[in-house]
Amino acid sequence: MVTDRLTPHLLSVAPMMDRTDRHFRYFIRQITGQMLLYTEMVTVPAIIHGDRSKLLGFSPAEKPLVLQLGGDDPRALADCARIAADWGYDEVNLNVGCPSDRVQSGHFGACLMAQPQQVAQAVAAMKRAISLPVTVKHRIGIDDRDRYEDMVDFVTTVAAAGCDRFTVHARKAWLQGLDPKQNRTVPPLRHGEVHRLKATFPHLCIETNGGIVSLDQVTEHLDQVDAVMIGRWAYDRPYDLATVDGRFYHNPSPPPSRHRVATALLPYLETWVSQGGRLHQVTRHLLQLFAGQPGTKAWKRYLTEQSCKPHAGPEVVAHALTLVPDP
């Protein structure tokens, strides 16, 4: 921590479409009990008109948990914030960072960085509606609006509305010419500007995000900002997070082994399958549990081949564990 200002967390796992669903979050909770977790982005129309149980349902074991919203209408966002509070979420986050064409066509995501007043009105409306923290995830900048002064203008305006935390993806986004995947890798990282933002606004909670792939990097960033969000690394090498609780949250308990993590999921799998769910909906998130370890190819192959079969159940995971050495 760079200040004495209390923050609700030090580390978080980023909201990632088609990745951070309820099954992945439950899986990660077997590895770290402390990191802040996020849903995938859920749009305002989906919540208002869709199946809320499917969109918003989660296990209490996943908490602390943030609902990330996609939208731009202050009144509708306030309604969704109330729904989030009723469902038991710990925080509501507004997506001002996604650059996809679909998101832009709905007039939300990264394109809102060009309209800080609109974002401020949305944050203010949500703050009036709920007592939960309301936060914003945004980019360094967009297109040619990417000077440090532009980001300062955005943060100044939105902070005045009561935003509780700014999570900054330390890359700009090109709204035309790059797809979402390219926008995660092509624009260069500019973490120094996020560090500078914290120095400019010492009273604000500032979190940095983008390209972070080791706990040593996390430590370095925490010398400059209040919190660190990690993304694809958490999905590609989830067990790297096993020492987070001890290293950053001073939890004296030893980290669980990979085998213990998988074994702890067996009752969850049994319940999910008994309720009509498909095994592969969960096991697709487990493929990288043994990344870099002997037997990982056999683990991934067996889960991939067997989990999609009719009536596949937790016995598939139990058998896959026999294919991987347990130190």
Structural class: alpha/beta
Characterize the overall form.
globular
The CATH architecture designation of the largest domain is Alpha-Beta Barrel
How would you write the strand order of the largest sheet? 1-2-4-5-6-7-8-9
Largest sheet: 8 strands, parallel, barrel
Let me know the number of strands. Answer: 9
Nearest-angstrom radius of gyration?
20 Å
Low-confidence stretches: 1-7
Helix content estimate: 40-55%
Count of discrete structural domains: 2
Task: State the CATH class of the largest domain.
Answer: Alpha Beta
Question: According to CATH, what is the topology of the largest domain?
Answer: TIM Barrel
What is the string of SSEs from the N terminus onward?
A: EHEEHHEHEHHEHEHHEHEHHHHHHH
The residue-averaged pLDDT reads: 94
